[in-house]
Write a structure and sequence with these properties.
The complex is a heterotrimer of chains A (about 230), B (about 230) and C (about 250). In chain A, about 65% of the residues lie in helices and about 0% in strands. Chain A is an all-alpha fold and about 230 residues long. Chain B has a domain of about 150 residues. The chains are: A mainly alpha (about 230), B mainly alpha (about 230), C mainly alpha (about 250).
Chain lengths: ~230, ~230, ~250
């Protein structure tokens, strides 16, 4: 079937007209929110910033996919949806726990939570590659030299591959990606929490503990959209 | 949620339902994928369905029940505000999935499917991607062998990875949270743990570089890797 | 009790939505070489579908009949925006992208709405976020044990997402001898399987007769029809169907 419609030819720069339209859509949605419910304006901007952070963090995560599992390419041998959502939600787990300690502590806790998940996963990936699968040392096929440690990869790649394992720069990138994803996820959660705390008692007359539980469905859905 | 069941019983019933769903998905995945490959003369082996499905369901029960119990304890004993289904998605669905997939996939991919590509210690050449090993120690290799191998090699690795994540995530929060108005546990301890893991990773990496050394001399070009 | 016994119609609606979108839309999208993008497509379908669905359930205040219609309209608008952004702004340049993401979002929201209706017996927002718990004989309105507050929605999300992703990504679509009726039957089977799970979860919200009716109908749909039909179709399409035999002991010397 793939021959029917022709392949996609993506990635040749930014389409200015479409970007302007997208910007207008975003501004229009912010404007609608401001008109309909002014209190939600700041939280909405927070949610947008959180989404941008998650999307930005996704690009730091060294995803290798199936080629990494076969030892053909460097990176983590799983999909980006899994890792980004994992980092964001693990961060959210820590952030929600620290939510009553104030905004900045919760944000820090969430960010560190995402980074921790990525740090341990990346370490275990390297341990598996080195001690279990026997594809040492980590090497990348894309660059010649690790920008942080100064290791050269040229001779360490095995023949016919694009590199394997998880070089240290990818490790750092993964941790930064996890931190950004956790930060964004926690920010979305806290902003939604704020809206619900202001809005819902008037609507429903609920008890304070109940507020804590509302944002999750939206949270999960927003995060899954962002982690694309 | 008007019913007030015994929580432990509910955990077991819920895990059993999840395992049933998992088993059905396992059979349809195998049947659908293999039946679509008639062009490559790939037969459907019914004994795979008969013997592997029950084993994966047993493994799935262990995984699901322990994860759900862990989530239940995090909520009930440690007082986390999330409801149980969301906690299950965060830990069981996504974090365990990410950890298990990241550390488990290499065993299945490189170790089991491409064992005939020596030397041990080299990555798989891209030109050999589709050339998987089809014959096992006795007769044809089927998904039966992969199940044995992944449960032996990949399962413990994924388990250690996920266990470390859960342990350190809880440990840093519970033990250090009272310090420095929350900054101690939530942020500082976590950052220290991340840096420690980073150092360990660097040590593993440089140990491997020193021990195994370069495949070729540093100046050799990799362009003639088409052989 | 009353209308609760008809909750299973929500599950049937979800199956029909999955049958349409889980296979057809994803197949159209996948013909542009989007192999590993299928899980992401399923997630974006359900993820934006939840937003549309939650918005639409608010319309129940005007008239309950508006909810499904509003759900489709809101999801289509949302999906068109998302598809436009992925196609033009992110420059994926897949001609059918906008339409297919819109379709997938409609499918996702309808699946969520159907399963939510099945688990709760209602799709008005007010009923979804409150439930009554009886503590020591006193009826208390509780938020934490409702469909949304108890996060049963998250489980429905995952059941729907797997049911959308499984037929095209894991099971049928892709290899050369994929046959279309088998892929569609697989989608129906996945929907019916999710329906069983949802029927069990509805034990917490509906009266016992309603739950039993939902459960029996899901079992009939799954085991009685779609699963056995799927096995038959797989048998038809497979190269060989080899049942294992015990090793025979041959008599004589050696």
């Amino acid at each position: 079937m793939s021959a029917l419609g022709g392949g996609s030819a993506g990635g040749e720069g930014i389409n200015p007209a479409a970007s302007v339209i997208a910007l207008v859509i975003v501004l229009a949605s912010v404007g609608i929110a401001y008109v309909v419910y002014p209190v939600a304006l700041i939280p909405l901007i927070g949610v947008i910033i959180g989404g941008v952070l998650i999307s930005f963090g996704v690009h730091f995560v060294p995803v290798g996919g199936a080629p990494a599992a076969m030892g053909q390419a460097p990176g983590i041998a799983t999909g980006v949806a899994m890792l980004a959502a994992g980092g964001g939600l693990a961060g959210l787990f820590g952030g929600a726990w620290a939510a009553e300690m104030g905004l900045w502590v919760a944000l820090g806790a969430g960010a560190i939570g995402g980074g921790l998940l990525m740090a341990i996963t990346c370490l275990m990936v390297n341990v598996v590659y080195v001690y279990a699968m026997g594809i040492p040392p980590a090497a990348s096929g894309k660059v010649e030299k690790d920008p942080i440690t100064g290791d050269t990869y040229d001779g360490y790649r095995s023949q016919g591959t694009e590199g394997h394992g998880l070089p240290f720069i990818s490790y750092v990138g993964g941790v930064i990606g996890g931190i950004l994803a956790g930060l964004g996820g926690t920010l979305i959660y806290l902003e939604l929490l704020e809206v619900y705390q202001q809005a819902l008692p008037n609507v429903l007359g609920m008890t304070p503990e109940a507020w804590l539980r509302l944002p999750y469905p939206l949270q999960v859905s927003l995060q899954s959209v962002c982690s694309l | 949620m008007a019913i007030q069941y015994n929580a432990i019983l509910a955990l077991i019933i819920g895990s059993a339902v999840a395992v049933f769903v998992q088993g059905v998905y396992a059979t349809t995945a195998y049947l659908g994928r293999t039946a679509s490959l008639a062009k490559f003369e790939q037969p459907v082996y019914i004994d795979i369905l008969k013997s592997v499905t029950t084993v994966t369901m047993a493994h799935a029960f262990v995984a699901v029940f322990t994860t759900v119990t862990m989530c239940f304890l995090i909520i009930e004993a440690l007082g986390h505000p999330f409801p149980l289904p969301l906690m299950g998605i965060v830990w069981g669905g996504i974090a365990l999935g990410a950890a298990g997939s990241a550390t488990g996939n290499p065993f299945y991919g490189k170790e089991r499917q491409y064992q005939k590509y020596p030397p041990f210690g080299a990555g798989l050449p891209i030109s050999a991607s589709g050339d998987i090993v089809r014959y096992a120690e006795a007769g044809q290799r089927s998904s039966l062998d992969n199940g044995w191998f992944t449960s032996k090699g990949a399962g413990p690795a994924s388990g250690i990875c996920f266990g470390l994540i859960v342990f350190f995530e809880l440990w840093r929060t519970i033990l250090f949270e009272p310090f420095a108005a929350g900054w101690g546990g939530a942020v500082i301890a976590g950052a220290v743990i991340i840096i420690v893991f980073m150092v360990i990773d660097r040590m593993v990496e440089s140990w491997a570089r020193k021990t195994y050394g370069p495949y070729t001399t540093e100046t050799a070009t990799e362009e003639e890797a088409t052989a | 009790m009353s209308t609760e016994v008809f909750a299973f119609f929500g599950g049937i609606a979800a199956i029909i939505a999955l049958w349409w979108g889980g296979t057809d839309s994803i197949k159209n999208l996948c013909s542009y070489g989007l192999g590993t993008g299928v899980p992401s497509a399923g997630m974006i379908a359900l993820g934006s579908g939840v937003v549309a669905m939650l918005f639409a359930t608010k319309l129940a205040g005007i008239s309950p009949l508006l909810v499904p219609v509003g759900c489709v309209v809101v999801a289509a608008i949302l999906g068109a925006i998302l598809g436009f952004i992925s196609d033009k702004v992110l420059n994926m340049n897949i001609p059918v992208m906008t339409r297919m993401i819109a379709e997938l979002t409609v499918v996702g929201s309808l699946t969520m709405l159907g399963f939510t209706a099945m688990v709760a017996g209602t799709f008005s927002f007010g009923d979804l976020i409150t439930s009554t718990t009886s503590v020591l004989g006193v009826e208390l309105a509780s938020y934490a044990s409702s469909v949304i507050g108890g996060c049963v929605l998250a489980t429905i999300f995952m059941l729907g997402a797997i049911a959308i992703q499984h037929p095209p990504f894991n099971a049928c679509l892709g290899p050369p001898n994929e046959s279309w009726d088998r892929t569609q039957m697989c989608a129906i089977e996945c929907g019916a399987l999710s329906m069983i799970g949802v029927a069990i979860m509805s034990l917490a919200f509906l009266s016992l007769p309603a739950v039993v009716i939902s459960f029996v109908i899901s079992i009939i749909l799954w085991g009685g029809w779609s699963y056995s039909e799927l096995i038959k179709l797989s048998k038809r399409d497979a190269f060989a169907w080899l049942d294992s035999q015990p090793i025979r002991e041959v008599g004589g010397e050696q």
